[in-house]
Each structure stands twice: as structure tokens, then as C-alpha cells.
Task: inverse folding
């Protein structure tokens, strides 16, 4: 698809600006043909001896006036045209970001952060460049060259013009051949840039792990390999660009030789005047820029197209979950129910949940326990509607979840993920993420419920303390409690806590659970944990093993049953006793 069709939506809204810029550019091109003609005329006057002072000063003033006029026009078209290109970049980045926020985890599994960042920066820049600089070079080539050529024919001599332009078609052939290659090599360069981004991101975010495993040298060496790749790919692009430049000089050189050679012949035979020959050579010089422009245009267009390909490839990916065509309205999630739910991650071969069933009435608490990797987090994630599910396996208030609007379901659930995600903002902003207009009282209450208040009191600036990237300046337990406060602030119908108390001590854990039980009476809670004491109060407990329900029941029933739960409970009680 061509660049213009692809960006039609943009050109349509900005056509007035483009038209203005192009008209101004054309005007400047026209005006530019006047000075050479005046110079030629003056020389003819000198030769004829008919030049007088009044005429000369008139010409000089006119030249100065023209220069000033063109200065203003050029200023206006440059700001108009390049204003368009930065606007396009802004719009594209906005679209891209909006697209990313709609994508589900499987998309981010396929597209690394580094690659996405490369798209948002380098590629969108290349597209904007085509819509600005590219348009400029195109207009310069088409309008600039035709104006000069028409002037040559009408004011000087068409034979001289034809002769001098003989080498030009050669240029077009070579340029179109090189242009295709530029595109291929530019794609490779952008790809390499994405890889470099990815590596840098991973190294920086994992710097502490790298250091503790003494892998700095290896990582620097590996990064060196990646940057060498970027350098090589870019060098290959500039190698092609370098081929353009001398080629243009060569062709211009040939043109000049023909112009001077054949032109002198014509002057000698009185077909044209000396002044005309000089004007002609100045015009020939004015053709150089349109020719260079043409090369640049092909170059920039190929890059813009290559980048537009890359961005589009990412933009066309649809979220693998869509809203139902005929959504069923559910007011309150009276009940959450799984019926023989089996779930396989998009990239996985084996299911992570197999035939899981339970019913949890509103206000109830479901505990999910089991060995690591048994599917606890996977079970909670089903409530977040991030992955497509088979039909009629998960019900909310008796309605299959796929018949309810995605946003509706998401509004019900406050989720505390197993891995905390903090933004490098203040503690307050992090807590208020899901409810930016929360009052101070609401925040204070959430902080209190998460047993986070005494920690906040010790922070240098209290709630205003900036936590650093992903909360580097908080302890593991503090991060967990911040994440809990964030979820509690929403006071959502369903609270899903994924192993969210693993980094706090047993006493803090029981305090938080008490708060939750008291404040959330009548609302539904899901808790996954390795420490069974966190779910002993739950209304129902599932013990998962390799995605299947191994045991289930209340704490008492499971203790009585004497299986995995009982053994684990006894062991944990013994360990707790030893620690006290
Ligand atoms: P833990 O106690 O360590 O948190 P868990 O019980 O929460 O473990 P899950 O995270 O639910 O375990 O993982 C269950 C299984 O699903 C594991 O075998 C894991 O490898 C697999 N799995 C998890 N996430 C993905 C994913 N995004 N794609 C493919 N497989 C996954
Ligand atoms: Mg987990």
C-alpha cells in the first residue's frame, strides 16, 4: 500500500495546510527564476554598452526585494509543512499508545517492550519525516525542476535544454534501483534498533540481578554485539545514501559540460546571447537541488514506508477478546461460578487449569492454595478477562462471562497481582491509580486497612514520597501493602489477592485479613497463598495440583480429610512454632 493511501486520514484533515505550503513553495520556485534572467539581461546590456546607472540600481533593489520576499515565504511554508509532520508524529504516538492499552497479555508476549519502544520513537519519527521533509523534496523536484525547465525553454533555447538534460533519465533509473535496496536495509536497521532498545531495557531493569551474579562484563560484551549490529545496519544504509551523492555530482557535471560546450557553440553562431548562456548555466545549477531532492525523496519515502509497515503490523493486531454482540446486563455479581473450566495459555501446549469447578456466593471468600505452578494465579486471572475462554465455563450471577461487557467485569474486580507494578510516582498517586479523584480520607482508610500507615509515617515525605522506578525504594512487604491499599481503595465487588501477603509477617497478615473481613463484609474475595493461615477463614478452599482441583472444602473439612492441605498446615504450624 502506498504511503499516501495509508495516511489518507491525516492528509484529508490537513489538506489546507499542505496546499498552502505547496503553493508557497511553487511561488518561491517561480520567483527564483527571476534573478538569473536579470543577471543575463544585465550582462547583455553591458556587452551592448547600453547599461545605465538608474537601470542597474533598479535591478539591484529588485534583487534585494526578491530575496527578502522569498525569505518570508520560505519561513511560512517551512513552519506550515514541518508543523504538519510533528503533528502527525504526535497523532500516531497517541494512536499507538491507545492501541497498546487495549492489547492483552498475549500481545505483549509476542512484542517485546524494546521493539514497541522502537516503533513509538524511531519508526514514527521516520513516518513524520516522510510527511514533512518527504513532501518538501517531492515538491521541490516536481515544481522546482519543471519551473526551471519551462523557463529554460521559454527564455533561452529548447535545444540547449534538451541536450543538457540527456543524462537525467539515467539518474531516475539508478535511483529507483537503489531506492528498493534502501527500504530493505532500513527495515533491518530499525529492527536492530529495536533489539538494542530491548537489551538496554532489560539490562537497566535487571541491573541488580546482573550485579549480584557478576554478569556486568558479559552483559556489556553482549550489548556491544547488539550495538555493533545497529552500527553495521546503519552503515549499510548510509553506504547506499553515499552512492546517491557522487552520482548526482557526476550527472550534474556531464550536464554542465554539455551546457557550456553546446551553449558556447550556439552563442558563437548567434543563436543565443552571452547573457542567455550565463542565465542558462545558473538555471542548470538550480536543477541540482531538485535532483538531489529526488534522491532524498525516494530515500525518505522508502524509509517512511518501511516504518509505516512496521507500525501498521502492530496496529492491525486486534485484541483477542472482544465485547459480546448482545451483552447481558448484570447489575451485581451475585455469584461467581466455574463449571469444568479448562484453560490453556495462548502460547502454551498444555492446559494450566483442568476441569475446575466451584461456586462462590456474593460476600464469600474463596481460598486457592497448592504447590508453586499449580495454577493459582491462572485461576485468578480468569476474572480479569485477559485471555479468551471457552464458552459457558465461567459464570457471574449465572450469566456466562463472555456475554457481559469486558469493562463491566473489570470494574467489579480489584486485583492485587503477584508481581507488583509500581509507577515512579508518589505513594499517593500509586495508591490512587484506579481512582484518581479519591479523597484524602479514602486514601488514609485504604492505607490503614492495608496496615501500611506506620510505614508511610516513616517515609521522608509521607504519602508524597516518590517510590522510584517500580518502587525501588520500598521493601518487598511495603510494595505488597501499597498494592493492597490500591486495590482496597476501589472498594470493588470482587477482590482478588494473588499471594499478596507473602512478604509480610504472620501478625501483619492476620491484621490485614481482619480489616478486609470487617470492611468488606458482603463483598466477594479471592485469596491465593502459600501460607495456609491466610485462607483458613475462607468459606471454601480449593487445593490445586497441576491445574486440577486436588482437594476442596472448608478448613475444617480439609483438616479432617487429612490430605495435602492437612500435611501442609501441620508443617507450617510447626515451623511457625519454632520461629516464635
Ligand atoms: P506460584 O505459586 O508460583 O505463583 P501458581 O500456582 O500461581 O504458582 P501459575 O502462575 O498459575 O501458577 O502457573 C500455572 C502454570 O501455567 C505453570 O505451569 C506456568 O508455567 C504456566 N503459565 C503461567 N503463565 C503463563 C503464560 N503467560 N503462558 C504460558 N504458560 C503460563
Ligand atoms: Mg502465582
Result:
Amino acid at each position: 500500500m502506498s504511503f499516501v493511501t495509508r495516511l489518507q486520514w491525516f492528509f484529508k484533515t490537513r489538506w489546507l495546510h499542505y496546499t498552502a505550503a505547496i503553493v508557497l513553495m511553487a511561488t518561491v520556485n517561480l520567483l527564483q527564476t527571476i534573478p538569473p534572467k536579470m543577471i543575463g539581461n544585465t550582462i547583455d546590456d553591458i556587452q551592448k554598452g547600453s547599461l545605465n546607472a538608474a537601470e542597474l540600481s533598479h535591478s539591484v533593489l529588485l534583487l534585494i526585494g526578491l530575496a527578502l520576499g522569498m525569505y518570508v515565504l520560505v519561513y511560512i511554508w517551512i513552519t506550515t509543512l514541518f508543523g504538519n509532520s510533528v503533528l502527525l508524529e504526535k497523532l500516531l504516538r497517541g494512536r499507538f499508545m491507545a492501541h497498546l492499552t487495549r492489547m492483552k497479555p498475549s500481545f505483549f508476549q509476542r512484542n517485546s517492550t524494546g521493539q514497541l519502544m522502537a516503533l513509538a520513537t524511531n519508526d514514527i519519527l521516520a513516518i513524520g519525516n516522510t510527511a514533512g521533509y518527504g513532501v518538501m523534496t517531492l515538491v521541490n523536484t516536481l515544481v522546482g525542476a519543471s519551473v526551471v525547465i519551462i523557463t529554460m525553454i521559454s527564455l533561452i533555447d529548447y535545444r540547449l535544454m534538451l541536450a543538457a538534460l540527456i543524462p537525467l533519465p539515467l539518474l531516475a533509473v539508478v535511483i529507483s534501483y537503489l531506492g528498493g535496496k534502501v527500504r530493505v536495509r532500513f527495515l533491518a536497521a530499525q529492527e536492530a534498533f529495536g533489539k538494542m532498545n530491548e537489551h538496554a531495557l532489560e539490562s537497566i531493569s535487571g541491573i541488580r540481578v546482573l550485579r549480584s551474579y557478576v554478569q556486568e562484563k558479559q552483559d556489556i560484551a553482549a550489548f556491544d554485539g547488539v550495538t555493533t549490529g545497529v552500527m553495521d545496519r546503519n552503515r549499510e544504509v548510509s553506504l547506499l545514501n553515499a552512492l546517491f551523492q557522487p552520482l548526482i555530482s557526476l550527472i550534474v557535471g556531464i550536464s554542465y559540460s554539455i551546457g557550456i560546450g553546446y551553449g558556447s557553440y550556439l552563442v558563437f553562431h548567434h543563436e543565443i546571447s552571452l547573457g542567455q548562456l550565463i542565465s542558462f548555466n545558473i538555471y542548470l545549477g538550480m536543477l541540482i537541488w531538485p535532483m538531489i531532492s529526488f534522491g532524498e525523496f525516494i530515500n525518505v519515502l522508502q524509509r517512511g514506508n518501511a516504518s509505516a509497515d512496521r507500525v501498521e503490523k502492530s496496529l492491525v493486531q486486534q485484541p483477542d477478546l472482544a465485547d459480546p454482540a448482545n451483552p447481558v446486563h448484570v447489575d451485581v455479581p451475585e455469584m461467581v461460578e466455574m463449571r469444568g473450566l479448562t484453560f490453556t495459555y495462548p502460547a502454551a501446549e498444555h492446559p494450566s487449569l483442568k476441569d475446575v469447578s466451584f461456586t462462590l456466593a456474593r460476600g464469600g471468600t474463596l481460598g486457592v492454595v497448592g504447590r508453586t505452578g499449580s495454577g493459582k494465579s491462572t485461576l485468578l486471572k480468569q476474572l480479569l478477562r485477559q485471555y479468551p475462554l471457552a464458552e459457558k465455563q465461567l459464570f457471574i450471577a449465572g450469566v456466562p462471562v463472555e456475554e457481559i461487557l469486558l469493562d463491566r467485569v473489570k470494574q467489579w474486580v480489584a486485583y492485587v497481582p503477584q508481581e507488583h507494578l509500581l509507577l515512579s510516582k508518589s505513594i499517593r498517586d500509586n495508591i490512587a491509580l484506579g481512582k484518581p479523584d479519591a479523597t484524602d480520607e479514602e486514601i488514609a482508610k485504604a492505607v490503614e486497612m492495608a496496615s501500611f500507615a506506620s510505614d508511610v509515617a516513616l517515609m521522608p515525605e509521607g504519602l508524597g514520597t516518590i517510590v522510584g522506578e517500580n518502587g525501588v525504594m520500598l521493601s518487598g512487604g511495603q510494595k505488597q501493602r501499597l498494592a493492597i491499599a490500591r486495590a482496597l481503595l476501589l472498594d470493588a465487588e470482587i477482590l482478588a489477592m494473588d499471594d499478596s501477603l507473602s512478604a509480610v509477617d504472620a501478625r501483619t497478615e492476620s491484621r490485614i485479613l481482619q480489616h478486609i473481613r470487617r470492611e468488606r463484609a458482603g463483598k466477594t474475595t479471592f485469596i491465593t497463598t502459600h501460607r495456609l493461615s491466610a485462607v483458613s477463614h475462607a468459606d471454601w478452599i480449593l487445593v490445586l495440583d497441576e491445574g486440577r482441583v486436588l482437594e476442596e472444602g472448608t478448613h475444617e473439612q480439609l483438616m479432617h480429610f487429612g490430605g495435602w492441605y492437612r500435611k501442609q498446615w501441620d508443617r507450617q504450624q510447626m515451623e511457625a512454632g519454632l520461629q516464635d
